[in-house]
Each structure stands twice: as structure tokens, then as C-alpha cells.
Amino acid sequence: METVGLVSLGCARNLVDSEVMLGCFKKAGYHIAHDPSLCDVIVVNTCGFIGPAKKESIDTILEMAELKKKGSLKKLVVAGCLSQRYADDLAKEMPEVDLFIGTGEFPKIVKLLESSPSFVRRGQGEVDCESTPPSPSPYQPKADPPPADKGEGIVHVGRPEALADEDSPRLLSTPKAYAYVKLAEGCRHSCSFCVIPQLRGKLRSRTIASILREVENLKEQGVKEFNLIAQDSTDYGKDLNNGTSLMTLFDALNKIQGEQWFRLFYAYPHGFPLAVLDYFGKGNIVPYLDIPTQHVSDRILKSMRRGGTGKEIRELVAMIRKKVPNITLRTTLIVGYPGETDADFQELADWIDEGPFDHVGVFAYSHEEDTTAGKLQDDVPAKTKRDRRKKIMEIQKKIAHHRNKEQVGKTLRVLVEGLRPLAEGPANLDLAGHFKIPSPLVGEGQGEGKIILQARHAGQGPDVDGVVYVSEGELGAFATVQITNAKEYDLIASL
Asked: What is the pLDDT of residues 170-201, one digit of tens each?
């Protein structure tokens, strides 16, 4: 039986694709391993969005290729956005890679691998992941594109039209407490800095029935938090032309029995439906919204082709706060965009200093070919970009710490998601007076090796926000805790 390993890079949307590929391999009878040195086949699911992500992807591919020289690795496969964007060039430059597949081919990975030259399985699996007929969808992929032989690697990159659904095999890689659920794939916007429409295709929404069936499948696996993602969640359902929207989806999700959390990410601010705010904090929908604003300067927003103005963004955020006072808001920003002056940046920094958001992520602008902004002069020096990013993060750090301190003494509902060694916990974490570490969670000795539990409250999204550290609790279950201490981004609690 062949052993397969997968390295998933980039965003949560890419992670879902990785989990589907792992599910395909498992269904076809492959063994899945976490240690690359034990694998016959390694898949690197890449990100190709911005410069640093591309570098990380290439470095990872080269690192995995080293295993071929040792004789342990037979096949190296590169999938995802970098492959979709640069497969022909990569095939010429990286002969160590056997197979390149695009973002539309990932559900066919087993079939494509087994049809590649010189690949012979030691033991045939049960079925290929495509053998189960998919549920009806208006977005069925077209026929496989003919493979292109570019050097030693075979290239399978066609139009990105795949849309995984509840019938797609999926092997979760997240802690069992939570999972990501794709509402849609692709994007219909044309932001000047972004290549996502080229890499992921046009907007393709799933039906509500499909999403509900996947949620039920995940619930049976113990998942209690469902993080709803898309390239643009605001646009969910608009391409179906049948009344499907975030509101009708939330209506359906709130009918699901039991305790669970549904959290919305990637909601484009322009055109965001205010009516959907009535659902936040009610039923299963947690009062949390990720709404990437990118900037607030009118001049920069116009050049970014974001739609709307800085005034409209400010008013939207204020309206959200007014209608849902207890909501947690997250945003992402870009600094150093071409033509961003000191005044443009200061306007952004002043707005963030007002505290409109609880969580903020900041990217230094990456000049990308094949984008509208790529035709502009990248005139903000790299150091200035780094300094501006640092300043925004320092402003937000103070806001986050202040709001965390306001949580001390409160009782919160949290979801316990995993164990974490103290050595990997937050800097200067002082447990004295706050925890009694139960003996089953203590390693050999009473110093090194101690384990604490990591949880999150409704205002903390996985991977991107802070966490709550607790001393006791059941993994994968909800618990009620009292906050006893606050760090800049994380909280400490006791039952």
C-alpha cells in the first residue's frame, strides 16, 4: 500500500481542497502519513497569491524534492494556486516534480497520479474518489484537459471549474472541534491587486441543501464549529438566481438542533446586506464577522477597484456596531499600495486607532504581474511598507489588549479545541494563581512537558485570532469558563 503525505499552504479555502485530496487518497486505499520521510507520494498544495506565499511554496517544493535524492520518495505532486498560475514555467524549472495539477483538477488527483508515467501501485485501492456520482450541480467540471508534457513533469491545468460538495471525500486535518465549510468558489470582482479570479474562476455557489448535508456529515464526526468561507461570502447565492442568499442560508442553519457555532469569514464590504445582521448572535450564528476592508482612503480604494468610498466603509462598520453591539469584527488591510502617500496611510492609521475592529490582519502590498495594479509603479519602498505594517499592528495590539482586559472576570462559553505544551504558549504566560494543572495533563517532571488546553470563545476565529487557555475540560466540547487574566491577544481562564 502506497503512503501519501500532503503539505497544505495558504488560506483555509486551500485547506479544504487539501482535505478533499486526502479524502480521495484514503477512499482509493492509500495510507496517509504525517512524516514526509515515510511517504511514497507527497502532494504540496500551494499558494500563489502574493510574493511571500509564492516563495514559501517554492521553498517547500524544493524541500520535499530533496527526499527524492534519498530514494524514499517516488512521486512529487504540486497542486493549488501556484500550479494553476505558473505550471508551465515550474515544469521547466523543477524537473523533480512529476505532476502539476491546477485548482480545477484537485478532485481528480488519484486518477491523474495513477495515469502518470512509471507510476505502479503495490496494492490497488477500493475505488477512485470520482467513482461516486456527484449530486446535481450547474457547475460540473468539463472534460479533463489533455496533459502537457513540460520537461519531466506532466501538467494538468485547465479552467478552474471544480466545486467540491457534500459527496466529495474529505479527511479533516483540523482539530475535531471545528471545520471549514466552503459556501462558494471563485469570485466575480476585479480588485486591482488580486489574481484570485484567474486562479479560482467565476463565482460558483453551492446550494443550501448541499451545505446542510455537509454540515450534518461533519456533525457526525464531532465537529461543533463551522467556519463559513468563500472568496467573497457577501456574494453567496447571487449566481444561482433563485433567491439563495446569506439570509436564507442562515435561516436553514438556525434550524439545526443542538449547540454549534457558525462563523462567517470573507464578507466583502461593498454590497454587504444589512438585513443579515439580524442573525448575528441569535441561534447558531455567532456574533462575529470578518469583513476585509483593505483601506479607507478614497483615492486608494478607487485605484484598488474595491467599490464604495471610505465614508461608506466607516458608516457600514458603525451600522454593524449599532445593530449588533456585542459583535466581534475582524478585517484585513493592505499597506504600501502603489501611490499610497503618507497622508493616505495616516488616514488609515487614524481610523484603526479609533478602534473599529477587534482583530486586524495587515499585508504589505505585493506587486503581482497579471493584475491591474501590476501595471502601476511599485513606488512605496519595501522598508516603508514594513514600517507601515508594523505601525498598524502596534496600534491594534494596544486595542486588542485593552479589550481583552475588559473580559477579565466575565464568564464565557468556549470551545475546547486541543492541547498545547506550555513551551508553545504565549510569552511570559504566568499560570501561578490561575490554574491547577490536573495530573493527567502533566508530563514527566513538574516543569517541562506540562500541557494546557487551548480553547476559543465566540469572538475568536481559528488560526487567525487569539485563544483562551484553560486547565481542564473535554477536548472537542463546549465549556463555561471565567476569564482570570488577559494577554495582548490571548486570555487565561479557569472552569
From this structure: 999 999 999 999 999 999 999 999 988 899 99
The span from the CA of 264 to the CA of 272, in Å, is: 12
Helix (H) or strand (E) holding 482: strand 478-486
313 and 379 both lie in a single domain = yes
Q: Supply 85's cell numbers.
A: 498560475
126 and 41 share a domain? yes
Give the integer Cα–Cα distance in Å for 315 and 234: 17
Quote the CA–CA distance of 371 and 355 in Å, as a whole number: 32
- 56 inside domain: yes
Residues 8 and 33 in one domain: yes
Contact 352, 360 (CB under 8 A): yes
Structural domain count of the chain: 3
The CATH number of residue 120's host domain is: 3.40.50.12160
Q: How confident is the model at residue 123 (pLDDT cuts 50, 70, 90)?
A: low
3 state DSSP class of 47: coil
Residues 63 and 137 both lie in one domain:
yes
Place of cell 506540562: 450
Instruction: Report the distance separating Cα 328 and Cα 353, nearest Å.
Output: 16
217-237 average pLDDT score: 96
Measure the CA–CA gap between 467 and 412, rounded to whole angstroms: 12
327 and 417 fall within a common domain: no
Cell of 467: 485563544
Strand segments (E) across 313-423: 328-335, 359-364, 411-421
Q: How far apart are CA 244 and CA 405, in angstroms?
A: 40
Q: In this structure, what is the dihedral angle of CA atoms 130, 133, 136, 141, given to the nearest 10 degrees?
A: 30
Q: Exposed (0-12), middle (13-18) or buried (19+): which is 322, by Cβ within 10 Å? A: exposed
Whether 61 contacts 86, CB under 8 Å: no
245 and 371, same domain (yes or no) = yes
| 143 and 85 together in one domain | yes
Helix 382-405 with 342-353: angle, nearest 10 deg = 10
229: alpha, beta or left? (left if phi > 0; alpha if psi -120 to 50): beta
**Which three three-digit cell numbers place residue 393?**
499592528
What confidence tens digit (pLDDT) does each residue in 258-302 have?
Answer: 999 999 999 999 999 999 999 999 999 999 999 999 999 999 999
Rounded to whole angstroms, the Cα distance separating 24 from 169 reads 6
Q: Residue 11 corresponds to which cell in the numbers above?
A: 488560506
The pLDDT of residue 452? 85
Cα distance between the two ends of the chain: 46
Predicted TM-score (pTM) of this structure: 0.88
Q: Tell me whether residue 162 is in a domain.
A: no
Question: Is there a domain that residue 170 lies in?
Answer: no
